[in-house]
């Protein structure tokens, strides 16, 4: 059984409402907004735990979340929530 992010979260005969991707993104957004430390660098948030990916920061270390050039805080939170939703859908399909 696989999960399609475009499938409705709660199917009915009209398929009205949120898709699974939208629902997962909303849950991720709720978590992101409830804990601002998620926006910190690896060293600040995880005290040196190894993590994959991330962008190099000036002076060393990597930033895993945070705003990109020209991106507002709201745009950043939305982007990260959707990225988490997409990763969850990938993980569910493994």
Describe the structure.
With about 90 residues, this protein is mainly alpha-helical. It has one domain (about 20-90). About 45% of the residues lie in helices and about 5% in strands. The chain has helices at about 20-35, 40-45, 75-90, and strands at about 55, 60-65. A two-stranded antiparallel ribbon has the order 1-2. A hairpin with a 5-residue loop joins strand 1 and strand 2 (about 60-65). Helix 1 packs across helix 3. The longest helix is centred in the last third of the chain and has 20 residues, at about 75-90. Mean pLDDT is about 75; it is low at about 40-50.
Proportion in β-strands: under 5%
Helix content: 40-55%
What is the CA-based Rg, rounded? 16 Å
Count of separate structural domains = 1
Number of contiguous helices: 3
Brief characterization of the structure:
With 94 residues, the chain is mostly helical. It is built from three helices and two strands, in the order H-H-E-E-H.
């Amino acid at each position: 059984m696989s999960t399609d992010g475009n499938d409705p979260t709660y199917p009915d005969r009209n398929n009205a409402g949120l898709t699974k991707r939208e629902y997962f993104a909303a849950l991720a957004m709720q978590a992101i907004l409830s804990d601002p430390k998620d926006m910190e660098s690896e060293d600040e948030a995880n005290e040196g735990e190894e993590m994959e990916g991330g962008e190099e920061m000036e002076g060393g270390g990597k930033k895993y979340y945070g705003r990109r050039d020209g991106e507002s805080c709201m745009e950043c939170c939305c982007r990260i929530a959707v990225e988490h939703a997409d990763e969850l859908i990938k993980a569910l399909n493994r």
